[in-house]
Amino acid sequence: MKEKREREEFLETLWHMKEHGQRSMDELRRWMKQAFDQGVVDELAGAGLVDVGKTGSEVSLTGQGEEYARKLVRAHRIAERLVHDVLRSESESSACEFEHTVSPELIDGICTLLGHPRECPHGMPIPEGECCKRAATSAKSSVVPLTQLGIGQVARIAYVECRSDRQLHKLEDLQIRPGVELKLHQTYPTFVIECEGTSIALDRDVASNIRVWRPVSGESAQGVQARGRGWGGLGFRRRRGHR
Question: Is the peptide bond before 121 cis (omega within 30 degrees of 0)?
């Protein structure tokens, strides 16, 4: 069979096509461009990972192929979060290398450390892992939702998941942005935080989309401020079509 990485690129592309509701062989050729190789498709079909249909005009992942591709896509999008959020880089090539070489166990550890992110920096969903399902405790998340803070706790915003440009601008107008320090004052009936000297009421959905660096037990507000500067704000996330 062809090189393992080449086969994996085909499987990953078929996953992206599925997300866009596409399954024709012509669409696969358009996605793959010069990298398209009918021989690779035939080999994947022979291995039970791809179904090419009776006429050969359609192509899709089998159940086995979908599980294989899910792991690749999950690794790629977790890598994007790591590269973008922690390493502060926009290098797509780093994420591409990552997905082919890192074990699922390490991916779950990074996912847990980052607080089980739901989307890549481009707004595409990250397939759920076993660590997400069991809320893994083997590695303590450094980033947690605002809703996990206790009343009176101070934390620094790591990133904000924005469902729309309108919500993004609204939060920015309220000074809720990466790198800003906040303090939780109330959780019911609404969440009330103090941010930049202003008290702000938030519903649970919005509060859960604000991710903060986990406060260290007994840490002072000055300690949070210093640690937050060291890590840096991670940024806002907006939905955009991408890998």
Answer: no
User: Angle at CA 110, nearest 5°, toward 109 and 114?
Assistant: 120
Q: What are the residue ranges spanned by the domains of the chain?
A: 4-61, 65-133, 143-237
- Sole residue written with tokens 């991670």: 234
Asked whether the beta carbons of 48 and 30 are under 8 A apart, the reply is no
Please check whether residue 202 is in contact with residue 222, taking contact to mean a CB–CB distance below 8 angstroms: no
Q: What's the one-letter identity of residue 82? A: L
Stretch 156-178: mean pLDDT: 78
Q: What is the dihedral of CA 70, 76, 81, 83, to 10 degrees?
A: 170
Tell me the per-residue pLDDT of 224-240, one tens digit each, with 9 for 90 and over: 444 433 333 444 444 44
Q: What's domain 143-237's superfamily in CATH?
A: Ferrous iron transport protein A (FeoA) (2.30.30.90)
pTM above 0.85, yes or no: no
Confidence at 223, pLDDT banded by 50, 70, 90:
very low
CA–CA gap between residue 69 and residue 100 (Å, rounded):
11
The distance from CA 233 to its chain's CA centroid, rounded to whole angstroms, is 16
Domain 65-133 fold? Arc Repressor Mutant, subunit A (1.10.10)
> What pLDDT is stored for residue 121 in this prediction?
82
Do 143-237 and 65-133 fall under one CATH topology?
no
Chain segment 73-129, per-residue pLDDT in tens: 999 999 888 887 777 666 666 667 777 778 888 898 888 888 888 888 888 899 998
Burial of 32-62, coded b for 16+ CB within 10 Å and e otherwise, reads beeeeeeebbebbbeeebbbbeeeeebbbbe
